[in-house]
């Protein structure tokens, strides 16, 4: 194997290593539920969020506006820190777009 082929092979191996190592991190970010776009059914998939809380989250979002931070869920009746903490790593807030 000549030098050029060896460098190409090493570069391909390095790329594969990076993809394999980043895989779990990428999966974690894509598995999050965006509380600004999630449906009632999607929200109900979160631990501690039943139909009533999910409906309140969607209603709050529609009537008050989008959430700007995960901790804004505290503004929803019945939801407090004890509800948010166990799901914090499963939820996210999409950036709020301004017209």
TrEMBL record:
One matching Pfam family: HHH_3
Domain (Helix-hairpin-helix DNA-binding motif class): residue spans on this chain: 41-60, 71-90
Keyword Signal assigned: yes
InterPro entries, alphabetized: Competence_ComEA_HhH (IPR004509), Endo/Exo/Phosphatase_dom_1 (IPR051675), Hlx-hairpin-Hlx_DNA-bd_motif (IPR003583), RuvA_2-like (IPR010994)
Signal peptide positions on this chain: 1-27
Source species, domain of life: Bacteria
Keyword list, A-Z: Signal
Coiled coil: none
PANTHER family assigned to the protein according to its UniProt record, in alphabetical order: ENDONUCLEASE/EXONUCLEASE/PHOSPHATASE FAMILY DOMAIN-CONTAINING PROTEIN 1, ENDONUCLEASE_EXONUCLEASE_PHOSPHATASE FAMILY DOMAIN-CONTAINING PROTEIN 1
Protein name, UniProt field: Helix-hairpin-helix domain-containing protein
Annotated organism of origin: Desulfobotulus pelophilus
């Amino acid at each position: 194997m000549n030098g050029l082929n060896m460098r190409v092979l090493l570069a391909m191996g390095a790329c594969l290593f990076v993809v394999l190592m980043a895989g779990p991190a990428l999966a974690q970010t894509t598995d999050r539920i965006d509380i600004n776009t999630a449906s009632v059914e999607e929200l109900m998939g979160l631990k501690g969020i039943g139909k009533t809380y999910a409906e309140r989250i969607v209603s709050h979002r529609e009537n008050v506006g989008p959430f700007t931070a995960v901790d804004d869920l505290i503004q929803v009746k019945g939801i407090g820190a004890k509800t948010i903490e166990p799901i914090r790593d499963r939820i996210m807030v999409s950036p709020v777009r301004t017209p």
